[in-house]
Inverse folding.
């Protein structure tokens, strides 16, 4: 039987509302989720690594996780930079000569200082000097954008509003645990006239929430929430968080702040005339910052798209099926190629040709036909479902005769017969249709 | 006169062979090149920044430089990962618990230690302990790939050859100048059987050189050269450099090493059985590493594509024209939209519609119609040529009547008339045709 009859959704990872599960259950959920991410090449093995991933920090990703994050960043970039031609991409430095925070020092230099036969006072002085000279690593992308405000202002002929977009690595100062971490951040810094900043904050909150929901299987798990007054950052007059409800609790994916212009003024040493815009009042613009954590974004979409289904087979046998129903645009592997019965050498040749064709068309393809371990069709489908592979194609001796292949869909589990020459167009159209919804 | 008659190439930036120019000339060349990069939004202003750029290090990029590097990285990724489905993308951590090199320390922690009333010996001990606990930042992408070898081996069923690709930020230990720097690196680490490693090194050298030349206006400035024996890295038995001949001297863009398996064994503490592959002899694979500096790549393509032409106008007037003839795939701005004579409000509306359409089709568009400073058509073309804008479109009252627009090509300087509805297809086809050559 090719199709899978879903009896009932036993535990849908993406809707935690219904499940008033005990903490132990939730821990088990988390554990099995992490295991799947490791087994299916999203996250590299290792306990420390899983721990980083789970905390919403950068971890070492496997090939599928790498591609998923690439897709996510690409979509983010496309969505913010296409906004009316008023958003410009920038790329600023990670290291700077700032005064505080995390510094990069060379071990050897410190050792040299410590090895010298000097007095305690001289030692302290030399280390302080070394620290001062050492570059700082960035902890956010905001500062870079504020610094780029003046040259960008020329670019837009001093006209508001406009935005500067950037994605990149940021470091996080060590917490109590004493261990620094890194995060892949996205940042849009929006400069607008003071009287419109609150409206822009609302605008961007709507836009960003819409964006997250667009790729979700269960959009209601994404929500926004106003930051309570007592938690506002220094300069900010208002803040909004975009949250994702994981089965084990809500976490922040993105934060929007209405920051006023104090930081902008400080960054440019109060040189108001350089910062003024042509908005009638010659005012110094206000800043709305939108910064996201795309490592946690990866985890949110993985968690959101994981469906666990079960079906009865015979009397006692209860079969479980896990499917990673990632949005077609985000799913790393669009198609897997496999061979069935028939002359292996010829079938592999056909697969090789298809693989080349798909990869040239930028369709990420999984070379399942290179696998030498024998597995049943059922086992293979189960594996691909857990990987979130959109379609799997079976090439068999039939294909050599009449050019027909079998295409199985992840989402419907239905197998269709199709001519081999139609495959590429079918896949391209399917993905771009999903993109434009 | 719309077309520009080129009289002779006075100083072609991309062919330095012919120019036996004096050092002072070369310095002037470099200075004017850097100025153009800053003026045309490739590199952010500031002397320190230009200095970083010039040294082939990461700098703060403007919107066009950001897009150019994005395009370059995208092309690199596509070119290596499509190779027969045997290359997998990975993403490893920047910070690690390695023993040497650059460390990230928190200023506050050091200050706390220095402020304590302790003996010199205790002080030294505490600082050493802090250093030990502090994470190191990576200086290359090789180590991460070697660490990911074992899980990747499972993925390919222990079959050679295969590769792991990654792009990302690396830090460079401070040289004599005492200042650390960052570089955007690309890395392909190729695992193959010992007896084929030298052939693979040749294969990848050919592939990589072909790739660089593909996007060049003057391909002969890119070359490869065997690393002399006395300059070989520790573990390596052979090395090849891919060089670019800048007008002011040759620089390395990419380096390929045949590294043997010593580092792989060291990284996995000599556990041979974990590393062995199914190639008949159960050998530990050899490593061919290919690592590139994409910041220098950006500079190479900018330098390579800059043409300086001059024409005579009347008797004495010698006009100079600089054109950044970046490859259509790399050029950041594919099209600029401008308005001519006619009702401004209506014309801007037409431009706004086109902008939206192009951006949705992922065609980077320059909103020239938003500029309020009046410039002549000549001045505008000159500016776009220096930006490397492929096409500029003029929307005028004519367009409102019959839908016709004027399209000027950067490379031919010819103006064509076209119907507005054909524009998007024309641009998409032009770019993809250039991509598939």
């Amino acid at each position: 039987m090719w199709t899978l009859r879903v009896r009932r959704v036993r535990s849908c990872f993406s809707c935690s509302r219904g499940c008033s599960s005990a903490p132990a259950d939730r821990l088990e959920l988390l554990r099995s989720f992490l295991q799947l991410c490791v087994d299916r090449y999203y996250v590299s093995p290792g306990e420390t690594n899983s721990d980083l991933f789970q905390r919403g920090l950068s971890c070492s990703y496997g090939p599928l996780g790498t591609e998923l994050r690439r897709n996510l960043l690409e979509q983010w970039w496309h969505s913010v930079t296409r906004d009316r031609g008023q958003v410009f991409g920038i790329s600023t430095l990670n290291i700077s000569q700032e005064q505080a925070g995390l510094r990069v020092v060379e071990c050897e230099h410190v050792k040299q200082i410590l090895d010298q036969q000097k007095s305690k006072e001289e030692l302290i002085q030399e280390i302080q000097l070394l620290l001062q000279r050492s570059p700082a690593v960035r902890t956010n992308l905001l500062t870079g954008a504020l610094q780029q405000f003046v040259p960008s202002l020329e670019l837009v002929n001093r006209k508001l509003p406009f935005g500067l977009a950037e994605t990149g690595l940021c470091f996080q100062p060590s917490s109590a645990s004493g261990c620094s971490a890194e995060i892949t951040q996205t940042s849009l810094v929006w400069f607008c006239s003071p009287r419109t900043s609150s409206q822009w904050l609302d605008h961007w909150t709507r836009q960003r929430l819409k964006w997250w929901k667009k790729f979700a299987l269960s959009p209601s798990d994404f929500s926004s929430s106003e930051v309570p007054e007592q938690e506002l950052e220094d300069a900010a007059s208002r803040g909004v968080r975009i949250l994702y409800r994981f089965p084990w609790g809500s976490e922040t994916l993105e934060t929007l702040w209405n920051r006023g212009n104090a930081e902008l003024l400080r960054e440019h040493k109060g040189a108001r005339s350089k910062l003024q815009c042509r908005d009638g009042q010659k005012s110094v613009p206000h800043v709305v910052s939108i910064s996201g954590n795309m490592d946690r974004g990866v985890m949110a979409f993985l968690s959101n798209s994981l469906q666990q289904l079960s079906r009865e087979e015979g009397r006692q046998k209860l079969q479980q099926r896990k499917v990673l129903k990632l949005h077609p645009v985000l799913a790393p592997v669009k198609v897997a190629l496999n061979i069935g019965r028939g002359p292996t050498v010829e079938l592999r040749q056909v697969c090789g040709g298809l693989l080349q064709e798909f990869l040239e068309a930028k369709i990420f393809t999984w070379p399942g036909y290179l696998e030498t371990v024998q597995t049943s069709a059922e086992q293979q489908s189960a594996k691909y479902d857990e990987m979130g592979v959109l379609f799997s194609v079976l090439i068999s001796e039939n294909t050599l005769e009449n050019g027909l292949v079998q295409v199985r869909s992840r989402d419907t589990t239905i197998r269709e017969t199709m001519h081999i020459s139609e495959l590429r167009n079918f896949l391209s159209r399917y993905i771009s249709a999903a993109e434009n919804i």
